């Protein structure tokens, strides 16, 4: 896990989560780091038939925040205190997906690049990216519903990862979500390489 500032562990006192505008100042800004091996150098000419464009996923309102959500019941969401992402999680996840796909040797086209249009487009919805404490022990959960559009048609698949948590603290949650996001990104990369016909997911 890459941290912009030094991450400080939470003290043993105080609530696990906190709601509303009285959240303490974050001790750290967290981000996601791809664990896939470095990509081979890209060829001078991009093979647009193999290339893919990765869109920023949509996400529900509960995730449209820099804070880390904690699902405490079927109808209540709170947040990890003193913890914050450097950017909204869907943008962090989009870059992680692009880096993971590129690490497999697949050309990845930036949607903002002028004059280049790939034949394949990966879109989706980041449905879960936080902590769930409703079970016997807390878990960090990443759930991504992917849609791959190609000249042959459209394929859809859900990808999900759960990582056990020993403590609900900013550094622990960020590390667990980074691990889960990399697991999901790796499975998505296999699926995209197979043209949306297989390679992990549910």
Characterize the structure shown.
With 202 residues, the protein is α/β, with parallel strands linked by helices. It has a single domain (25-34, 48-193), classed as Rossmann fold (3-Layer(aba) Sandwich), CATH 3.40.50. The chain is built from two helices and nine strands, in the order E-E-E-E-E-H-E-E-E-E-H. Strands 2, 3, 4, 6, 7, 8 and 9 form a seven-stranded mixed β-sheet that branches. It has a two-stranded parallel sheet with strand order 1-5. Strand 8 (139-150) and strand 9 (153-164) form a beta hairpin. Helix 1 packs across helix 2 (170-193).
| Beta-strand content estimate | 25-35%
CATH class: Alpha Beta
CATH topology: Rossmann fold
Averaged pLDDT = 84
Query: First CA to last CA: what distance?
Result: 26 Å
Helix-strand topology string: EEEEEHEEEEH
Any low-confidence stretches, pLDDT <50, length ≥5? 1-21
Q: Helices and strands: which structural class?
A: alpha/beta
The total tally of domains equals 1
- What overall form do the CA principal axes indicate? elongated
Number of helices: 2
CATH architectural designation: 3-Layer(aba) Sandwich
How many beta-strand segments? 9
Residue share in helix? 10-25%
For the biggest sheet, the summary is: 7 strands, mixed
How would you summarize this macromolecular structure in one to three sentences?
By secondary structure, the chain is of the alpha/beta class.
């Amino acid at each position: 896990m890459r941290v912009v500032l030094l991450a400080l562990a939470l003290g043993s006192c105080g609530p696990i989560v906190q709601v509303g505008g009285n959240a303490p100042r974050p001790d750290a800004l967290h981000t996601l780091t791809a664990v896939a091996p470095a990509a081979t150098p890209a060829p001078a000419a991009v093979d647009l038939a193999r290339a893919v464009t990765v869109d920023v996923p949509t996400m529900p309102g509960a995730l449209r925040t820099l804070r880390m959500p904690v699902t405490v019941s079927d109808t209540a969401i709170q947040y990890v205190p003193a913890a914050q992402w450097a950017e909204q999680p869907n943008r962090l996840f989009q870059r992680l997906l692009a880096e993971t796909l590129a690490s497999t040797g697949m050309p990845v086209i930036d949607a903002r690049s002028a004059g280049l249009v790939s034949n394949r487009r990966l879109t989706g919805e980041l449905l879960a990216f936080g902590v769930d404490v409703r079970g016997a022990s807390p878990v960090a959960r990443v759930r991504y519903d992917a849609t791959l559009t190609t000249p042959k048609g459209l394929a859809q698949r859900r990808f999900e990862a759960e990582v056990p948590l020993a403590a609900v603290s900013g550094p622990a949650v960020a590390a667990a979500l980074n691990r889960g996001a990399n697991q999901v990104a790796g499975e998505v990369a296999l699926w995209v390489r197979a043209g949306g016909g297989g390679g992990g997911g549910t």
